[in-house]
Amino acid sequence: MQHLGRANYGSPQQLRSIGGMLVYATRYEGDASLPLHEHDEAYLCLVADGAYVQQASGRDTACESGLLLVHPEGHRHANRFSPLGARCLSIFPSHEFTASDSMQRLLGDHRALNLPDAPRLLARIERELAATDDAAPLALQSAIFELVALACRSDQGERQPAWLSKVLERLQDDPLASLSLQELGALAGVHPAHLARRFQQAQGMSVGEYRRALRIKLACRTLACDERSIADVAVEAGFTDQSHFARVFKRVTGQTPRDFRHKLQHAS
After folding, report:
1. Fold entry, domain 158-267
2. Summary mean pLDDT of the chain
3. Is the pLDDT score of 3 beyond 60?
4. What 3-state DSSP class applies to 265?
5. Any idea which of 2-6, 117-121, 132-136 has the lowest mean pLDDT?
6. Strand locations in 65-138, DSSP E?
7. Residues 169, 210 contacting (CB under 8 angstroms)
8. Residues of the chain with CATH 2.60.120.280
9. Which of 56, 110, 128, 183 is most buried when burial is the number of CB atoms within 10 A of its CB?
10. Is residue 133 helix, strand or coil?
């Protein structure tokens, strides 16, 4: 079995070193596979585009764009890529950064985190990886720190209300459903006002913002693999107004729907 240090299989398209932190952007070909391997240091993997199946501990995990995977030190896994391949951002934190209690908890176990704000931060990280001005390293580090902070907060289940997982699961199962706070409160067994307040505290956004972010994530998948018009994609994602869809899309991802699709088509 292959043991890797602060590196990955394949040749990185981009590599940045910032204050002891390493960031790789690596493209993997369609239908490729990586053998069982482990890394000597804990790291984070953000799926930038494409898809693959991770095999670890007898379980398969479907990994798609926007998913953040936490790989603790020595985590053994193998990857099987889709016909379209995938592009992944690997983040190896500095030793000073990993010394904090929150990072120790986050990096202690393998997990796959669906963060609704991931598309926006992914767009920022991609943009700063490509930038060449003097401010790019600081901006890249800031985007990664924000991503890590969201991951740490989402992972602190012991500080979150017990009912929150039910509400998140219901929203994620059907982002297009028109669910009211009353319905979600009934599911959680709490008053709607209490649900709204605690949800905001735990997730850093309102229920409505969370649902819109999930819908934008659906739209990203459609734009990446479908030739339908942006107006049709907006309707399918639950937006009756294309201009509203475009504003929300840019707020979440940092790009317009047209620019997002153009970038993917240009990359392929």
Report:
1. Arc Repressor Mutant, subunit A (1.10.10)
2. 87
3. no
4. helix
5. 2-6
6. 67-71, 77-92, 111-114
7. no
8. 2-157
9. 128
10. coil
Stretch(es) of the chain classified as CATH 1.10.10.60: 158-267
Report DSSP letters for 143-212, one per residue: HHHHHHHHHHHHH-GGGS-TTHHHHHHHHHH-TTS---HHHHHHHHTS-HHHHHHHHHHHHSS-HHHHHH
The DSSP letter of residue 267 is H
Of the chain, the end-to-end C-alpha distance in Å amounts to: 32
Residues in the chain: 268
Cβ-contact 153, 136 below 8 angstroms: no
pLDDT over 90, % of the chain: 36
d(CA 253, CA 179) in angstroms, rounded, equals 24
pLDDT, tens digit, 9 for 90 and up, residues 209-266: 899 889 998 888 888 877 788 888 998 888 888 889 988 888 888 888 888 888 776 6
Element (DSSP H or E) covering residue 35? strand 33-39
Question: How many Cα neighbours within 13 Å face the side chain of 17?
Answer: 3
User: Do the beta carbons of residue 242 and residue 231 sit within 8 Å?
Assistant: yes
Amino acid symbol at 218: L
Return the SS3 of 95. Answer: helix
Which CATH number is associated with domain 2-157?
A: 2.60.120.280
Alpha-carbon distance 266 to 268, whole Å?
Answer: 6
DSSP readout, 47-66? EEEEEEEEEETTEEEEEETT
